[in-house]
Amino acid sequence: MKDPVLVPVSPAELLDKKTILEVKRERIVAPEKLANVKRELALLTDIARELLAQVDPASGVAQLEAQLLQVNREIWDLENTVRACEQAKDFGEEFVRTARSIYASNDRRAAIKRQINLALGAELIEEKEHRKAPPHGQPAA
């Protein structure tokens, strides 16, 4: 199948996918993988450019997209750290701290995506619902 499957997504989902691909373009070194990333990124960049051309700069969406890029970079780094701990079979303090940072970063990512969708009056709004974690250092109830 040559043609991509077209799926309706929210503006924030588009920008999130685009920023994840930007992180991959920065971090992936394998030529074949990088070529695939660049191809997909080019397609999504064109669509995002059209979307953002219709957006009032005062909406703050450009700044939110920059925050999304930053949090996706953080998640990439955290994932690498937790995978290194896993490979070393080190499930101590660094593993736990990093795993907790991953879900905290994903919560920030979801909040940024929600802000983007609300700022743009998006019809599609992603919803999340997870159990609340106890504050750091406190046992679960």
Characterization of this structure:
The chain has 141 residues and is mostly helical. It has helices spanning 11-27, 31-53, 61-87, 93-119. The protein has one domain. It is built from four helices and no strands. It starts with 10 loop residues before the first helix and ends in a 22-residue tail after the last helix. The model has no long low-confidence stretch (mean pLDDT 91).
| Percent of residues in helices | 55-70%
Strand content: under 5%
Query: Radius of gyration over alpha carbons?
Result: 17 Å
| Form type | globular
Helix/strand-derived class? mainly alpha
**Helix count, DSSP H or I runs of 4 or more residues:** 4
Please give the alpha-carbon distance between the first and last residues.
50 Å
Mean pLDDT value = 91
Q: What number of domains?
A: 1
H and E string:
HHHH
Described by strand count, sense and barrel closure, the largest sheet is: none
Instruction: State the low-pLDDT regions, or none.
Output: none
Count of β-strands: 0
- Oligomer, anyone? single chain
Task: State the main characteristics.
globular, 0% strand, 141 residues, mainly alpha
Give the topology, please.
Elements: H1 11-27, H2 31-53, H3 61-87, H4 93-119
Helix pairs in contact: 1-2, 1-3, 1-4, 3-4
In short:
With 141 residues, this protein is mainly α. The chain is built from 4 helices and no strands.
